[in-house]
Amino acid sequence: MTTAPPTTGPPTTPPAAQAATNTAAPPADEKRALVIMAHPDDIEFTCGGTVANLADDGWRVSFCLVTSGDKGSKDDTLIAWDLGRMREAEQEAASKRLGVTECIFLRWPDGFVEDSAELRATLVRVIRSQQPDLLITWDGYRGFNHRDHRTVGLVALDAAFPLARTPHYFPEHADEGLGPHRVNTVLLAGSREPNYFVDVGRQLDRKISALLCHASQVQATREELSQRMRKRQSEAAAQGRIPWAEGFRRMTFGGAGAPSRTAALRAQAKRDPNPKQTDPQAAQQPGTADHPPDRKEH
Questions:
Q1: What does the alpha-carbon distance between residue 46 and residue 44 come to, in Å, rounded to a whole number?
Q2: First-to-last CA distance in the chain?
Q3: Is the residue at 2 inside a domain?
Q4: What is the pLDDT of residues 129-170, one digit of tens each?
């Protein structure tokens, strides 16, 4: 019989042992993106279109899920361990729809993620192993929301800067062949103050297909999801916001390359003959992050 992991503490198997290790330097022409989120389906709801764009543009995209969402159901007949494995399978299926290369499941208990040295070490290890040019994670500063979202966003940002790039933090990683790595661009999803927008209009069908893979969480049909998304994007356009865009808070730490698809910003600039700022990537605009229909849980 398989022994279920604890439900209120760190996983019994050290998270570092569960994350894939890659000590080889990526090819010079390969761009890498790493998405660190709290639960399966967080990515598809907040940045699924952006991920699909990156994959289409030739980026190697990896997902890292800190929990497996093992509390995300009101069905009291489900065992948390079984629910977690179900949601991992859903995430794997969704990832294939978006062109993702790899999913890493750390299996921390859902709802009990803490800002601890252990989690910081784990995420630094993932960053040093995956060697991303771009990190996407939750905006941990966006106000009240699921505690795991807040915590994962804050810890992932700390892991990217300054921890992962500094050799004196977690020097034991060198024993595994992992050295410091500089993440130069971070996109914070779910931000209340987005300043970077990605046009995902061409990815609507793929985003919906990925969302529908999360059958334990998404009850709507494809047509219902499509109608709700179109309604919200029509409202955004009517209010002068960018339709079909996913919005982020963009942070850079120098020498960075950002996703190439920023046509939404250029289109917005053409509609506004007298923009207040000349740099479209720095333009402050109303939030347009796509918020699809509510899920069952998270």
A1: 6
A2: 29
A3: no
A4: 999 999 999 999 987 788 999 999 999 999 999 999 999 999
